[in-house]
Structures are given as C-alpha cells and as structure tokens.
Amino acid sequence: MIELRGLTKRYGKGNKTATALSDLNLSIQKGEIFGVIGHSGAGKSTLIRCINLLERPTEGEVWVDGVELTKLGKGRLQEKRRKIGMIFQHFNLLSSATVYDNIAFPLRLAGTPDSAVEEKVKDLLALVGLEGHRNKYPAQLSGGQKQRVGVARALANDPDVLLCDEATSALDPQTTDSILRLLLDINRQFNLTIVLITHEMHVIQRICDRVAVIHGGGIVEQGAVTEVFLKPKHEITQGFIRGEAQNDGQLQAAMRTVPGESSQAVKITFLGEKTYGSTLSRVARETGVNFAILQGTISTIKDVPFGQLIVRFEGSAEAITSTVLELKAQGLDVEVLS
Amino acid sequence: MGGLNFNEVNWEEMMDAMLATLQMLAISGVFTIILGLPLGIVLYLWGRSQEPVIRFIYSVLSFLVNILRSVPFIILMVALIPFSKSIVGTSIGVLGTIPALVIGAAPFFARLVETALREVDRGVIEAAQGMGASTSQIVLRVLLPEARPGLLAGVTITLVTLVSYTAMSGMVGGGGLGDLAIRYGYYRYEMEVMLIAVALMIILVQLLQMIGDRLVRHFTRK
C-alpha cells in the first residue's frame, strides 16, 4: 500500500545541512496498523510527513496505492491527497468553524454537493460519537473530542490511508485509550491502512500489527509487534521496551544470589494461549526445582496475550538444566541470563 | 479664551462637512480594502515562498510598501496632486482627495493584513494542504476565516487612520471637518467651529473603534 524507497531528507543548504532521513526504505501493507516509534529528533515526524508530501524528500520515491506521489504534478497530488487522511498532535482544526463545518471542510474542498455533505457528516459524527456537538466550536471541546473531530475530518473523503502524527501525545492516558480504540475500530470496519508515529511504546503495543524503530534518520529494527516487543534486538528498541526496570541494581543482585544450592536466572517469554497456562508450576514440580519470580509482565499486545518473567531457579544444576529444556519443549521461550 | 459663543456656528455647514468626511471615509475605506487586502495576501504568500525569484519580487514589493508608508501623508498628498487630477479630474474637494487617501492607507492596511495572516496557525494550513486544498482554497477557506478577528481589527485601525488623513487633507483643499476646522479655527480664529469639528471627529473615531472591537470579539473563537 505504501512504499518508501531510498528516502532521504536534508534540511538547509551548503555545508550547513542537517539530515533528517537517510536512505530509508519501508513497506506498509494494506489494512495493517503500522507503527513507527522513535525519540524526538529521530526523524519520525519527517517520515510521516513525507508520505503525503507535506515534506518533499530530497531524494527517494514515495508510492501510495501503486502511484508514485513524488512524480505527480500539483493538481494530481492534491487529488491523491484527498485519499490520504491525516490527524495531528495538536488537532489543527479550524478555530473559526464549527464541528460540523470542520468535518465538512474536506468534502467541500472536493466540491461535494451540500446534501451529500450533510449526510456524510452526520454518519461521521455518529462514528466518532459527537452527535450532540455539531454546532460547537473547537475551543468549546476537550482534547479528546477535538481529536475525534480530527479523525472524522480525516475520514470524510473515504481515504485509503490514515496518517497519525503523534495523535495521542497531547492527550491524557484515558483519552489516549479511547482514541486508540476508535482507530482500531475504524481499521477493522473499513480495512483502512493506518500509519502512526509515536514515542510511546504502549501505543504501539495497544493497536499496531507491525512496528519500525527509527533512530538517526534510519530504521534500526522492524517486524511484527510481538516479535520486536518481546525480543528487541537493537539497544534503542530495548530502551523503549524496558524503560525503567531491567537495569536496576536490586534485580541484578537478586539474580546473582545463591542461597545454599546452585541457582540460575532465566527470562521466560509466554505468547498467546500459553500465557494463561500453568506450564511453569507443573514443570517445576516435576523437576523438583523451586523458583522465585523477580520481575514480570503479563499483558496483551493488541489482542495477543503475552507474559515475560524473570525467574530464579534454585536446585541442583541438572534439575535446573532439565527444567529449562522441559520449558522449551513445552513451547515457551527461555533465555538463560548470566 | 475669552468666552465661547456657539450661537455664531453655522450648523448647516457643519453638517455638510460631517457628511463630506463620512463620504471620504467610506469611499477611501472601500478602495483601501479592495487594494490592500489582495496586496496583503500576496505579501503573505510571497513572503513564505521558497522560490528565489518570488522571494526577490517579495523584497522589492515589500520595499515599495515601506516607502509609501514612510512618506508623511501631507507630503504624499501634495506629491500626488497631478496623479489625482489625472484619475478623478480634480485634486480638491471630496473626490480629489480620494486617490491620495487610498494610496496612503492601502500599503498600511496591506501590512496589517499580512500580519493578521501570519497569526494563523501553521498547523491548520498544513492540515488543509494535506487534504488536497489548492492555494486559492487555502486563502479563501482557511486564511481569511481564521484571520477574521485580526483582519477586522486591521480595518478598524485603518479607518481611524483615514479619519485623521481626511482631516489633514483639509490643508491642501480637501473637504470635510478637517477643512472646516482649519479654515475657521486656524485662519479665522473661530475657536468654536474648530472645537465642534474636532469633537465630531473624536466621536467618529470612538464609534469606529467601538464597532470594530465588538466585531472582533464577536468573531473570536479562541
């Protein structure tokens, strides 16, 4: 659906250039929710703005739905942009227009007749749950309501793609959640391709199918969210996922503690149905080891349950080895920590 | 002052002068907006262009606007006498002053328009671009409505400035209250006429400002 090829964006001229993106390649499938995560200044904002050419890349090609946007003339590009919706961190609504007129705006730009506008806006208001607010001005709405107007406006011309530029970064956690749920609904209902950029891992975890990690103007890691989230390879990715905990001294000490017998710390990853099974306690009982849970998360990635525990096994070296083998045989992912 | 006697004041003449002032204000106001608004929009658009050629044209235009704004109005008026004659056939009276008033006020108003447009949130313009809006759609459907309070404030300031310009035009044969105040008050020491003429202009300015402020408040949605 979206193909970025050799995308490079440099700002400035002469020897004072700054490179925001360098030779970046990315491919996004139809109907998926694709997340791009990165720290501020990593180039993610430039990346998403290159997809509808709000930023023109210095080099490279942008393909959307089989059309090379970077080759289009002004008029054709404007036409194509109608099929690419976008929502923004700061909503960017017309402050002088009502909720109704804001949502009607892209329809009127496209020359839609009034009766069709009326009908479409009504549907969209219902979709985003703002039926009672049609005559209010943006200043009278909460942040979450403003973003709902933004979403409705972005969907007005039945786009193929929705771009979300830090769309939840200005919202509180509860509102963020309700907007993410709305995006997920829309994605499923209309099979709409969504590209979102964020600096918050939980946004990716909540709704994305695939994720790319951007750093220094390039993509350092990408893949299915479950994969990247549970097995982060690049240190930037690891930083996003661990955030606070893993490197803390208390945990390190607990992993090394040897109370009498031999012990071994391992990281066990559960994915899917196994997350809610009793595999760990059954295997431990069979092999006769004891275990202490030092750290753990049990949650979901989009709809997939997962768990990740750091566990210290205590017992004879052979018992611990056979425990690890048995857990692996049961289909869990076990990583022995040094 | 030795006692003022308002019985001698020719009220009919005062009314005529008032009407003349209002006429000058209305006609020059309309033309100032007709010329200044597009000029301001063009200044705004060209001022943000990345094209070197357009940037050059912008700096030339901007320079010309600044020249017109820095020439004192009274001098501009005298300098424009031949021009006024060629356009409206005379350089005196209500009609004769209009060209000078418009040329004096339009660049000033254009700058106010440019400033008001610059206040429009960059993000909103980008959102419209992202939706496939053309430049003219952005001007008509985004910039002008979003900048409406600023534009109305600019119109108010310009009209108030025009009131004082019309008064000054009395020095070189323009009509209206300024002419009256100068002829009676300055040349003939008839303090009463001058006082009333000035008072009427003060009332006019107050009214304009009040209406302007109301409109600005009415259209402010932030």
UniProtKB/TrEMBL annotation, chain A:
Q: Which GO molecular function annotations are given, in alphabetical order?
A: ATP binding; ATP hydrolysis activity
Q: Which domain of life is it from?
A: Bacteria
Q: Which UniProt keywords apply?
A: Amino-acid transport, ATP-binding, Cell membrane, Membrane, Nucleotide-binding, Translocase, Transport
| Occurrences of domain ABC transporter (ranges) | 2-241
Instruction: Identify the SUPFAM superfamilies for this entry.
Output: ACT-like (SSF55021), P-loop containing nucleoside triphosphate hydrolases (SSF52540)
User: Does DNA repair appear among the keywords?
Assistant: no
A GO biological process this protein is involved in? amino acid transport
GO cellular component, alphabetical, reads: plasma membrane
Q: Which residues form a coiled coil?
A: none
The record's family statement is: Belongs to the ABC transporter superfamily.
Protein name as catalogued: Methionine import ATP-binding protein MetN
Q: Which organism is it from?
A: Paenibacillus albidus
TrEMBL record, chain B:
Record InterPro entries? AA_ABC_Transporter_Permease, MetI-like, MetI-like_sf
- The residue ranges crossing the membrane are 20-46, 58-81, 87-110, 151-173, 193-212
- Give UniProt keywords alphabetically: Cell membrane, Membrane, Transmembrane, Transmembrane helix, Transport
Q: How does it sit in the membrane?
A: Multi-pass membrane protein
Annotated ABC transmembrane type-1 domain residues: 18-212
**What GO CC annotations are associated with the protein?**
plasma membrane
Q: Where in the cell is it found?
A: Cell membrane
At the top level, the lineage of the source is Bacteria
Major place of residence = membrane
Biological process annotations from GO: D-methionine transmembrane transport
Q: Which CDD domains match?
A: TM_PBP2 (cd06261)
Q: What family classification does the UniProt entry report for this protein?
A: Belongs to the binding-protein-dependent transport system permease family. CysTW subfamily.
Protein's recorded name = D-methionine ABC transporter
